[in-house]
Amino acid sequence: MAQRARSAARRRTLLVILAVALAGVAWLVKIAIEAALGDGSIIDLGVLQLRLFYNTGVSFSLGSSLPTWVVILVTGAITLAIAGYAWVAAADVSLLGLIGLAAVVAGAATNLVNRAVEGAVADYFHTGWFATFNLPDTYITLGVVCIAISVIFPGSARPEPTAAAVTQDATAPDGDDAEHRSRGEG
Questions:
Q1: 163-170 and 2-37 are packed helices; what angle lies between their axes, rounded to 10 degrees?
Q2: Could you tell me the sign of the dihedral formed by the alpha carbons of 21, 23, 28, 33, in that order?
Q3: pTM across the whole model
Q4: Model confidence over 106-158: pLDDT tens digits?
Q5: Catalytic residue numbers?
Q6: d(CA 82, CA 42)
Q7: CA pair distance 98, 56, nearest whole angstrom
Q8: Rounded to whole angstroms, what are the CA distances from 165 to 94, 110, 154, 171?
Q9: Is 121 in contact with 132 (CB distance < 8 Å)?
């Protein structure tokens, strides 16, 4: 039991480290984009343009007519719920699922802090055929994809039981031994 608790603590630590690192990268990119494009300039990368836009709403500018405090309150509650779920789930999800959870938490938290500090989110990836978005939005999208893949294809990416857990299971006080249970005889 102590081994499982240590494993859960390590996975939660990894979740936090990944989320903080991703959020840090997003903030550095935002600062660089604002410095480079703050004068209204555009960088054409072919399929994608870097074009600075401030969004006071959420995805696709939904809620942009609402007071900022309402948007912050709602997105803050959602971010807190996502972070709470990620904290609990981190102990049992696959590594891919853990990376996905960290990406979603990082994206949501970065956009929340950006909105709370500046009253808007800096969006800068512009395609011309889709909404302008930012790196935290990409984290959220790719994080959801990682989580979905880890759920649809659970396979061997799940955390392996520790030797202590296997030993504890094999000597369970229910009178069955692990061999009989593994063959479906228990």
A1: 150
A2: positive
A3: 0.78
A4: 999 999 999 999 988 999 999 988 888 999 999 999 999 999 999 999 865 45
A5: 123, 137
A6: 34
A7: 30
A8: 17, 37, 20, 10
A9: no
